[in-house]
Amino acid sequence: DDDEENLGMAVSAELDCSRLHRFQKSKDLVLMDLLALLLVTEAKSDAAATMLITNGSMQFFYSKNRPFTDSENKYVRTLFNYASRTDRKATFRYKDLMAVIIDKCQKKIKARISKVLRRVKDLQSTADRGILSESCLPLKMVKRLKAQLEIDPEISLKNFLISWCDHLDSTRRSKDPGFLQYAVASAHTIGFPLEMHLMIDQKLLRRIRKLGDYLGAVIQLVGEIDRLPPRPSKP
Predict the structure, then answer these.
(1) pLDDT tens, per residue, the chain with 235 residues
(2) Other residues' Cβ atoms within 10 Å of the Cβ of residue 26
(3) Contact at 8 Å (CB) between 208 and 190?
(4) Closest Cα partner for 195 from 112, 139, 123, 117?
(5) How far apart are the first and last CA of the chain?
C-alpha cells in the first residue's frame, strides 16, 4: 500500500476526471483497481486482481494472492446481487453495498484512516497544517467547493477541513460501523473535486482520496450495471 503513495491521485479521482494524463491508467484499468479494492479484506499482505467484461451482459473474474475463502466468495456474490437490484434507487444500493463492504473490509479501511491521521500528525508542526486558506482561490471556485461539500457559506473551507481531520482523529477507535461509513463517505466528498489539490497538502489529499475510494468503487459498479441493457421479461 505504501507504493501506492507514488500515484498522482487515488483511483476514483482518476476515473471521474474527464481529462486523464496520457501516462495515467485508462479508465478501464482504474475501474479494475477500484473493484479489486473491495476484495482486499486484510490490512496488510492481501492483494486482489479483477476483470470486468460487459457486452450485453456482465462477467466478473477475480483472484487473490491466496485462495478465496467460502466467506469471501459469498461476499462477492452479495456485492453483485445488491448492485444488480435495479428496481431500487442507486442511492439505496450504495447504502446496502457500503454496509456489506464496511463489515468485510474494515481492517483495510481502518488502516487507511490511520494513514490519513499519520499525515495529519506529520503536518501539525507546520503553520497551516497542510491546509491553505481559501483566500488563495478565486471566489467562484470557493463558492462551488462549498456547495459540493455542502457546508455553510459562512464557514471557511480551511476550518471545515481542519475540523474534519480533528473529528476523524477523536473517533478513530470507534467500533461503530456508522463511523467507518462516515469516514469513507466524507473522504470521498472531500477528495472528489479536482480543485482540492490547490488547498490540501498533496500527500494528505492522496490518502483522503484513497480512503474515499470505497464509495467511488460502489458508485462505479452500480453505474456499470445500470448501463447494461434491461433483461428480457419472463413470459
Answers:
(1) 543 443 333 444 444 433 333 334 577 788 889 999 999 988 888 889 898 888 777 888 889 988 888 999 999 999 999 999 999 999 999 999 999 999 999 999 999 999 999 999 999 888 788 899 999 899 999 999 999 999 999 999 999 999 999 999 888 777 789 999 999 999 999 999 999 999 999 999 999 999 999 999 999 999 999 988 876 665 5
(2) 11
(3) yes
(4) 139
(5) 50
Q: Which amino acid belongs to residue 235?
A: P
Do 200 and 228 contact (CB within 8 A), yes or no? no
**Coil, helix or strand at residue 192:** coil
H/E element, 23: none
- CA-to-CA separations, 170 to 42, 116, 173, 190, in angstroms, rounded: 24, 13, 8, 19
**Pairwise CA distance, residues 29 & 52, whole Å:** 10
Counting beta carbons within 10 angstroms of the beta carbon of residue 168, is it exposed (0 to 12), middle (13 to 18) or buried (19 or more)?
Answer: buried
Mean pLDDT of the chain: 85
- What CA–CA distance (Å, rounded) separates 40 from 68? 11
In order, the DSSP letters of 132-148 are --GGGS-HHHHHHHHHH
- In three-state secondary structure terms, 181 is helix
Query: Could you give the CA distance from residue 78 to residue 84 in angstroms, rounded to a whole number?
Result: 10
At 110, list the grid cell.
Answer: 481502518
Query: Which has the closest alpha carbon to 31: 14, 18, 46?
Result: 14
Instruction: State pLDDT tens for residues 35-47.
Output: 999 999 888 888 8
